[in-house]
Amino acid sequence: MIWQLSYNGYDFKFPKSVKLDVFNAAEKRAAKASVNASFYDIREFFQGRKESGTMNTKSADETYNALIGKLREAQKALAAKIAPKVYEYGFLKE
User: Fold this and answer.
1) What's the rounded Cα separation, in Å, for the pair 23 and 28?
2) Helices 21-29 and 62-88, interaxial angle, to 10°?
3) Nearest alpha carbon to residue 44 among 24, 19, 61
4) What 3-state DSSP class applies to 50?
5) Widest pairwise Cα distance in the chain
6) CB 64 within 8 A of CB 70
7) Residue 1 in this model has a pLDDT that exceeds 70
8) 18-35 b/e with 16+ CB inside 10 Å = b?
9) Which of 15, 23, 64, 85 is a plausible cystine mate for 46, CB 3.0–4.6 Å?
10) pLDDT, tens digit, 9 for 90 and up, residues 28-68
11) Residue partners of 50: CB distance under 8 A and separation at least 6
């Protein structure tokens, strides 16, 4: 099963197993967002910084917290799925 996302004239195809609600939220906010913002910039915007300069661990924006939580869960699932091949192809040694 494949799903397709079109953004700025580009078509992206993904397996159904990696579809995230984050993409749906991103489409809604795309008109407001800077296309040059990195993931770190986005985290800094929503989470802010402490006086010491370190990034806060949470945001006051509950929607962001829910979306970043789903993203982190998906990252863990993806890491578990690709881990065997990472070692098999020698990218990391056990």
Assistant:
1) 9
2) 130
3) 61
4) coil
5) 47
6) no
7) no
8) eeeeeeeeeeeeeeeeee
9) 64
10) 666 666 667 788 888 999 999 999 999 999 999 999 999 99
11) 56
